[in-house]
């Protein structure tokens, strides 16, 4: 049930316990007839209504065919019937729009990336050699561990898939011999980067879920992760054939890069497995494309989907939406199901498929059985399994990685993000259908794809918005402070969400530096259930988030966090695009309250309490303040 535009919403739409059902899904390669008896019994026991009802429901589902994934999109409308000529024209037009939106890198940009990666490969070889010399007491052991074999550099992510934009970073994995450890990587290797000319904005994050070093080399943004492998024979053999800088869009695809096989998982710790699986997932997605044409269509469709998500403010793992790997798996799923479809048709089928998807049923590219069985000689590891793991059962939008150990790549998505993505999938399905049928009008007054990339009016649809300003007096302080506040922002969003209030985050930070401070702004739209008193104790809802950021040991007096609840009419002009500005004054106003809250006392001047409809003490009373020296 969708919320009425601009108004209240009934309480019952928020009842998560009533909306959620226990579901067990299988992949498109595992037909119902092959399910074990235990799985059938699990379905009968857990599906709403109990045994007899569930059995009848299961029998009725079989009329949709033997493809379990097909049943989840049975409600989807078939795409419009258009001629092959029109379909080819629309695909060509989609490419033109993507090019005009600067989504495809120039040859000069590609050459710069290749040059930076070659330089990085040479530096890694020198670093590995220096480690051997520095460990003379362990020389024999180091040699046996493959000390004479240099590390190899492999790309993954958007660069490996060939869909990166000109300003995108390059995700790289260092596969190193055993004598190079993660401590060395975040120790001596970081020191080398600090001293290297051309390296800027160096940020090692050793405590991250997947430890990473972020930096810029010769103008190219790089995210570098690490794994030390025990298979020295494999490493030595492949080190000879790796071409530095190969892979990505510049060679028409990354198929020539070294494939990381299952044997490399032997002996790896959890962090290394996560690091290696970034490459394994990318190579798996590429391997599913049966022809160069299908690969070309996949890339163009993925470029368009990612740009659409950015425009709508829904491209961010950290903020409760989807990131690059999530979108890549979803588009791959549609391409596998429609191998002969053009990019124009694939784009429409993508939106139609997931506008009608029965979440939390998972999206899976591989058979269920293969996700649970470890490769030979590889230790068994936890995999995503809602039958065995209660936390997995709570995931609202599971998108499962295709390589062992399979994980939910979208575990960060919560109810607010899923709700908004559903709304936008439906809108995009309607717009793309109009484009295919020739009834859509774009920004330029002509029928075309430009209408798909128009923002849906986020800042004109709701009555109240929470503005979050992250600020600091120096750039270095700002980067550290912003990283913490952004990483914990999901706590804030979850605190705002309740049976009475719906939260709609917009996944974009607006950088608005001044002479006094560096500042970035983030917005969450709010809708209230019918009859709910909007003069609520907001401090209690944001207290957990504020407690976490207040506890940051590296915080200084120059770091500030400001929260302000605004009516639609009070939103700053910089958040509106042209079409939203036209709708701003004419839209029905909300009845949101206005308040301001801070994580701790700030250097910035406070507004007078008389300007607020909620007093400062009422907002902040649940929060234990931290004194800043």
From TrEMBL:
<feature type="compositionally biased region" description="Basic residues">
    <location>
        <begin position="13"/>
        <end position="22"/>
    </location>
</feature>
<dbReference type="GO" id="GO:0006397">
    <property type="term" value="P:mRNA processing"/>
</dbReference>
<keyword id="KW-0479">Metal-binding</keyword>
<feature type="binding site">
    <location>
        <begin position="324"/>
        <end position="325"/>
    </location>
    <ligand>
        <name>ATP</name>
    </ligand>
</feature>
<feature type="binding site">
    <location>
        <position position="169"/>
    </location>
    <ligand>
        <name>Mg(2+) 2</name>
    </ligand>
</feature>
<dbReference type="InterPro" id="IPR007012">
    <property type="entry name" value="PolA_pol_cen_dom"/>
</dbReference>
<dbReference type="GO" id="GO:0031123">
    <property type="term" value="P:RNA 3'-end processing"/>
</dbReference>
<keyword id="KW-0539">Nucleus</keyword>
<dbReference type="InterPro" id="IPR011068">
    <property type="entry name" value="NuclTrfase_I-like_C"/>
</dbReference>
<feature type="binding site">
    <location>
        <position position="169"/>
    </location>
    <ligand>
        <name>Mg(2+) 1</name>
    </ligand>
</feature>
<dbReference type="GO" id="GO:0005634">
    <property type="term" value="C:nucleus"/>
</dbReference>
<keyword id="KW-0808">Transferase</keyword>
<feature type="binding site">
    <location>
        <position position="223"/>
    </location>
    <ligand>
        <name>Mg(2+) 2</name>
    </ligand>
</feature>
<dbReference type="Pfam" id="PF04928">
    <property type="entry name" value="PAP_central"/>
</dbReference>
<dbReference type="GO" id="GO:1990817">
    <property type="term" value="F:poly(A) RNA polymerase activity"/>
</dbReference>
<feature type="binding site">
    <location>
        <begin position="169"/>
        <end position="171"/>
    </location>
    <ligand>
        <name>ATP</name>
    </ligand>
</feature>
<feature type="domain" description="Poly(A) polymerase central">
    <location>
        <begin position="298"/>
        <end position="454"/>
    </location>
</feature>
<feature type="compositionally biased region" description="Basic and acidic residues">
    <location>
        <begin position="586"/>
        <end position="597"/>
    </location>
</feature>
<dbReference type="Pfam" id="PF04926">
    <property type="entry name" value="PAP_RNA-bind"/>
</dbReference>
<dbReference type="InterPro" id="IPR048840">
    <property type="entry name" value="PolA_pol_NTPase"/>
</dbReference>
<dbReference type="InterPro" id="IPR007010">
    <property type="entry name" value="PolA_pol_RNA-bd_dom"/>
</dbReference>
<dbReference type="Pfam" id="PF20750">
    <property type="entry name" value="PAP_NTPase"/>
</dbReference>
<feature type="binding site">
    <location>
        <position position="171"/>
    </location>
    <ligand>
        <name>Mg(2+) 1</name>
    </ligand>
</feature>
<dbReference type="GO" id="GO:0046872">
    <property type="term" value="F:metal ion binding"/>
</dbReference>
<feature type="binding site">
    <location>
        <position position="223"/>
    </location>
    <ligand>
        <name>ATP</name>
    </ligand>
</feature>
<dbReference type="InterPro" id="IPR043519">
    <property type="entry name" value="NT_sf"/>
</dbReference>
<dbReference type="InterPro" id="IPR014492">
    <property type="entry name" value="PolyA_polymerase"/>
</dbReference>
<keyword id="KW-0547">Nucleotide-binding</keyword>
<comment type="similarity">
    <text>Belongs to the poly(A) polymerase family.</text>
</comment>
<dbReference type="GO" id="GO:0005524">
    <property type="term" value="F:ATP binding"/>
</dbReference>
<protein>
    <recommendedName>
        <fullName>Poly(A) polymerase</fullName>
        <ecNumber>2.7.7.19</ecNumber>
    </recommendedName>
</protein>
<feature type="region of interest" description="Disordered">
    <location>
        <begin position="1"/>
        <end position="91"/>
    </location>
</feature>
<feature type="binding site">
    <location>
        <begin position="156"/>
        <end position="158"/>
    </location>
    <ligand>
        <name>ATP</name>
    </ligand>
</feature>
<keyword id="KW-0460">Magnesium</keyword>
<feature type="region of interest" description="Disordered">
    <location>
        <begin position="586"/>
        <end position="629"/>
    </location>
</feature>
<feature type="binding site">
    <location>
        <position position="315"/>
    </location>
    <ligand>
        <name>ATP</name>
    </ligand>
</feature>
<comment type="function">
    <text>Polymerase that creates the 3'-poly(A) tail of mRNA's.</text>
</comment>
<feature type="binding site">
    <location>
        <position position="306"/>
    </location>
    <ligand>
        <name>ATP</name>
    </ligand>
</feature>
<feature type="binding site">
    <location>
        <position position="165"/>
    </location>
    <ligand>
        <name>ATP</name>
    </ligand>
</feature>
<keyword id="KW-0067">ATP-binding</keyword>
<feature type="domain" description="Poly(A) polymerase RNA-binding">
    <location>
        <begin position="458"/>
        <end position="511"/>
    </location>
</feature>
<feature type="domain" description="Poly(A) polymerase nucleotidyltransferase">
    <location>
        <begin position="85"/>
        <end position="230"/>
    </location>
</feature>
């Amino acid at each position: 049930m969708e919320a009425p535009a601009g108004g209240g919403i009934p309480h019952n739409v928020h009842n998560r316990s009533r909306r959620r059902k226990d579901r067990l899904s299988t992949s498109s390669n595992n037909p119902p007839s092959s399910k074990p008896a235990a799985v059938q019994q699990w379905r009968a026991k857990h599906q709403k209504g109990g045994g007899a009802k569930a059995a009848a429901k299961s029998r009725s589902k079989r009329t949709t065919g033997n493809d379990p994934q097909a049943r989840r999109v049975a409600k989807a409308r078939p795409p419009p019937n258009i001629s092959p000529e029109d379909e080819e024209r629309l695909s060509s037009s989609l490419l033109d729009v993507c090019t005009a939106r600067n989504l495809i890198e120039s040859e000069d940009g590609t050459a710069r990336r290749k040059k930076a990666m070659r330089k990085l490969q040479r530096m890694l070889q020198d670093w590995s050699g220096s480690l051997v010399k520095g460990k003379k007491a362990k020389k024999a052991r180091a040699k046996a561990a493959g000390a004479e074999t240099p590390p190899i550099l492999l790309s993954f992510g958007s660069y490996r898939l060939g869909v990166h934009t000109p300003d995108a970073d390059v995700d790289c994995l260092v596969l190193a011999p055993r004598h190079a450890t993660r401590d060395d990587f975040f120790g001596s290797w970081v020191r080398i980067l600090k001293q290297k000319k051309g390296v800027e904005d160096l940020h090692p994050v050793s405590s991250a879920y997947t430890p990473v070093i972020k930096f810029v080399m010769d103008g190219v943004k790089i995210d570098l992760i690490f794994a030390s492998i025990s298979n020295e024979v494999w490493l030595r053999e492949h080190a000879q054939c790796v071409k530095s800088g190969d892979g990505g869009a510049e060679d028409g695809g990354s198929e020539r890069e070294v494939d990381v096989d299952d044997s490399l998982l032997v002996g790896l710790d959890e962090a290394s497995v996560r690091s290696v699986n970034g490459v394994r997932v990318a190579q798996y997605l590429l391997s599913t494309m049966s022809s160069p044409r299908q690969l070309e269509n996949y890339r163009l469709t993925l470029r368009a989907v990612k740009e659409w998500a950015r425009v709508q403010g829904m491209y961010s793992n950290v903020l409760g939406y989807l990131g690059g790997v999530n979108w890549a798996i979803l588009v791959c799923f549609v391409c596998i199901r429609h191998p002969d479809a053009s990019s124009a048709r694939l784009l429409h089928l993508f939106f139609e498929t997931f506008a009608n998807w029965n979440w939390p049923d998972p999206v899976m590219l591989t058979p269920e059985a293969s996700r649970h069985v470890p490769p030979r000689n590889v230790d068994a590891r936890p995999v995503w399994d809602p039958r065995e793991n209660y936390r997995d059962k709570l995931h609202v939008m599971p998108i499962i990685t295709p390589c062992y150990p399979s994980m939910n790549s979208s575990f960060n998505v919560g109810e607010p993000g899923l709700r908004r993505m559903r709304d936008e999938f439906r809108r995009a399905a309607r717009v793309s259908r109009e484009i295919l049928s020739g009834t859509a009008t774009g920004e330029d007054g002509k029928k075309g794809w430009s209408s798909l990339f128009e923002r849906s009016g986020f800042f004109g649809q709701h009555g109240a918005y929470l503005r979050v300003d992250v600020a600091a007096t120096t750039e270095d302080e700002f980067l550290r402070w912003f990283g913490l506040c952004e990483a914990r922002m999901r706590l804030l969003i979850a605190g705002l969400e309740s049976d009475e209030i719906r939260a709609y985050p917009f996944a974009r930070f607006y950088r608005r530096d001044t002479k006094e401070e560096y500042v970035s702004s983030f917005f969450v739209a709010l809708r209230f259930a019918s009859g709910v008193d909007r003069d609520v104790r907001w401090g209690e809802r944001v207290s957990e988030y504020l407690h976490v950021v207040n506890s940051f040991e590296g915080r200084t007096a120059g770091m500030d966090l400001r929260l302000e609840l605004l009516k639609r009419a009070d939103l700053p002009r910089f958040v509106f695009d042209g079409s939203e500005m036209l709708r701003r004054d004419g839209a029905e106003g909300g009845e949101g309250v206005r308040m301001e809250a801070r994580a701790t006392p700030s250097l910035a001047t406070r507004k007078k309490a008389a300007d607020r409809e909620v007093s400062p003490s009422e907002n902040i009373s649940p929060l234990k303040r931290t004194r800043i020296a």
